[in-house]
Amino acid sequence: MNLAASAAPVAALSLRDRVDDALDRALAERRLVGAVVLIARDGQIVYRRAAGQADRESDRLMREDAIFLLASVTKPIVAAAAVELAQRGRIDLDAPVTRWLPQFRPQLADGTAPDISLRQLLAHTSGLSYRFGEPSGGDYDAHEVSDGFDQPGLDIEENLRRLARTRLRFAPGRGFKYSIGLDVLGEAMARATGTPLPTLIEETILAPLAMADTGFQVADYKRLVAHYTDGRAADGSRRPLRMHDGSELPFFDGVLRYAPGRIEKAGSYPSGGAGMAGSAGDVLKLLEALRRGGDGALSPEAAAILMQAHTPAGVEGNDPGWGHGYGAAVLADPVAAATPQSRGTLAWGGVYGHSWFLDPQRALSVVALTNTAIEGMDGAFVFDLRDAVYAGLDDA
Predict the structure, then answer these.
(1) Cβ(390)–Cβ(340) under 8 Å?
(2) In Å, what is the CA distance from 308 to each residue of 152, 227, 328, 347, 362?
(3) Which of 115, 186, 295, 335 is the most buried (most CB within 10 A)?
(4) b/e map of 145-164 (b: 16 or more CB within 10 Å)?
(5) Which residues fall within 8 angstroms of residue 202, CB to CB, at 6 or more apart?
(6) Pick from 377, 321, 315: which is nearest to 31 by CA?
(7) How far is Cα 91 from Cα 308, in angstroms, rounded to an integer?
(8) For residue 245, is pLDDT > 50?
């Protein structure tokens, strides 16, 4: 911790002082093992720091170009590709998924199997769910549905077969529930275009934005971090536990099941909702492209669609003040959300320990990739970082 900064009058603290303090406290209290934080304002990086350890057991320090398993940070990348491909006329978001996946016909409780559109999969209004979002012992457990970051070696055909045997939580288009829909969407996109999903994402998003560290395979295993779960040591002190295939964490009423080795296992399907690995710098490139209206990589029309809420705030399943767009939550009411972020802010995270947000009113992009779940996604660090950023901007 920067003791000089801590002793300074509050009004004199800079953005760097404040963000450093939030990060140093999370590391000192062993809530995080390591992190990379990047902050851009008006297109210029105003804060960059790699802190802590990429691999605690080998004492490998974190580097800014570290590669992380992205979990749901995958979603805005795949969502951007889906919207861009729709703008180019290569896919039809309003077509039923059965046009390309004819056997995928999950049913409602009454036994009917309504059509599900690609748009509903993208918007989480399909009636599907996530296994980790369901109480233990339900149909997702019974059919061993993969959430896209577990079960190494599982292919997409088998997971779609399992998922199709679960019950839809509501009629498509009649509700909102965060779901595995982008995994289904990813396979439909691949079949609609005749292009494997990894190649499709590379051609549509990664190459145009020079996101060379990101993909459904690890670009450089020497830069891949070790991942950790929140835990407590035998002596009662707080100490995250090294993650392994089969690690589990309780999460609300469900359970997060991890397999960090999944990405290395041949046959693991490319999960459109959780299957990519990448760097903080690459995620920042995507956010800045959206902020700039596509930045020449995406069409302005696609960028505008991706910045909008498509499920309004107040719909069950959203946090207070937040709606949901394609790949991220969208802030509608900062007061209801109790946040200093501006109306129209996009934000999301990933269950390996990540958070990001894009505040277009303040021309602000913030990426924080950590190797510690769940603290780095939904712990005190996320809110401490957010508050430090805005306090630092206001003091500037």
Answers:
(1) yes
(2) 35, 33, 10, 12, 17
(3) 186
(4) bbbbbbbbebebeebbebbb
(5) 215
(6) 377
(7) 20
(8) yes
- The DSSP 8-state label assigned to residue 236 in this structure reads S
Closest CA to 139 of 147, 149, 131: 131
Exposure pattern of 254-267 as b/e (b: 16+ CB <10 Å)?
bbbbbbbebbeeee
Contacts of 143 (CB under 8 A, 6+ apart): 162, 163, 165, 166
The Cα 174–Cα 170 span in angstroms is 6
- Cα separation, 340 vs 334, in Å, equals 7
Decide if 126 is catalytic.
Answer: no
All residues at 6 or more sequence positions from 126 whose CB lies less than 8 Å from its CB, including other chains: 116, 120, 168, 172, 179, 181, 184
Q: How far apart are CA 219 and CA 229, in angstroms?
A: 24
Report which secondary-structure segment, H or E, holds 390.
Answer: helix 380-395
Query: What single-letter amino acid sits at 39?
Result: I
Per residue in 268-323, pLDDT (tens digit) is: 999 999 999 999 999 999 999 999 999 999 999 999 999 999 999 999 999 999 99
Quick one: which of 283, 292, 218, 215 has its CA closest to 73?
283
Please say whether the beta carbons of 22 and 388 come within 8 A.
Answer: yes
Q: Which of 6, 14, 58, 72 is catalytic?
A: 72
Per-residue pLDDT tens digits for 164-221: 999 999 999 999 999 999 999 999 999 999 999 999 999 999 999 999 999 999 999 9
> Where do we find the tokens 């501006």?
342
Which residues have C-beta within 8 Å of that of residue 1, sequence separation ≥ 6? 21, 24, 25, 28
Which pair of tokens denotes residue 291? 């902020």
